[in-house]
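User: Need the bound-state model for acetyl coenzyme *A:
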Amino acid sequence: MNYTKIAGTGRYLPEKILTNFDLEKMVDTSDEWIRTRTGVERRHCVAPEQTTSDMCVEAARIAMEEAGVGPADIDMVFVGTTSPDLIFPNCATLVQHRLGIPACPAIGMEAACTSFIYALATADKYIKAGESKCALVIGAECITKLVDWSDRNTCVLFGDGAGAVIVKASDEPGIIATHLGADGQYKELLYYPVGASKELHKAGTDEASIMMTGNEVFKVAVKTLGNVALEVLEKAGVAQEELDWLIPHQANIRIIQATAKRLGLPMEKVILTVQDHGNTSAASVPMALDVGRRDGRVKPGQLVLMEAFGGGFTWGSVLMRV
Ligand code: ACO
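Assistant: Bound-state model below.
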């Protein structure tokens, strides 16, 4: 059992869809601006009473069904999110309880948009160390609850959802290499100013929302994502042309195009969901993986590179055979 292999995937998207035309009525923007600058056409938004753990449970049930595993088969739970229900207990414990998964490690991963990749890379290490046989790994966000809906710089970008995978120890090739990184010097470019140590972005008020210097984030993201992709390929001794699919974090179509170009991959080899989902942060990569698998494009045995970049900055990639 030398590999960590995907045994099932699932996704959940909230019912409510907000289009660019809806946003035109809310802030000074246009469908044309949003589409050409970001690639986003619509996004799903959670209902006020819905939480991240609600969406995790829905996505996890689908992944478990496909993998043919029940709660008692799962021996680790990871939830990557930047919009957890609570500061504690962590979201993974809430999900574990609601799915009836017996006592096991339940780990919350907080690395902004890279949270799912961090979680999957960590699950891989536990499985390869022989300490886990079947792990539930989720990336989920209700990030629209953290957005200032009067700020056109950020509110047009984000959406909600959850993506889940079941990974198992396997003899067949699965995850081949992972690569994680972070550089904390960039905190001021992208952050959410609330925690146990509260930094209020509007002096004298309790209001908080995502703080982002978009164009600066853009520049570092383009540079970093290209490097991250090449580093994991080099680590695995795999050539760029061997890749069947790139499944990137869906933040911005222009960032994705730049990464694909750096890898010498045509856009036909990229799974794109940004147009329908917007930037769902930690949920974007597992949901895109699920979309690609379920519509039949991503086939068993193919070589897939997943990668993400987010606040921190954090970044990471996973190279695997599906
Ligand atoms: N509608 C119309 N005009 C707008 C809008 C909008 N929604 N938003 C900004 N503009 C205006 C700006 O005010 C600016 O106007 P000005 O020139 O008069 O000042 C102009 O458009 C250009 O603004 P820029 O910020 O330079 O535009 P840019 O081309 O960089 O696109 C964007 C902005 C889409 C945010 C881009 O920079 C981006 O995608 N950045 C990366 C975001 C990202 O990847 N985040 C990381 C993940 S999030 C996470 O980790 C939680």
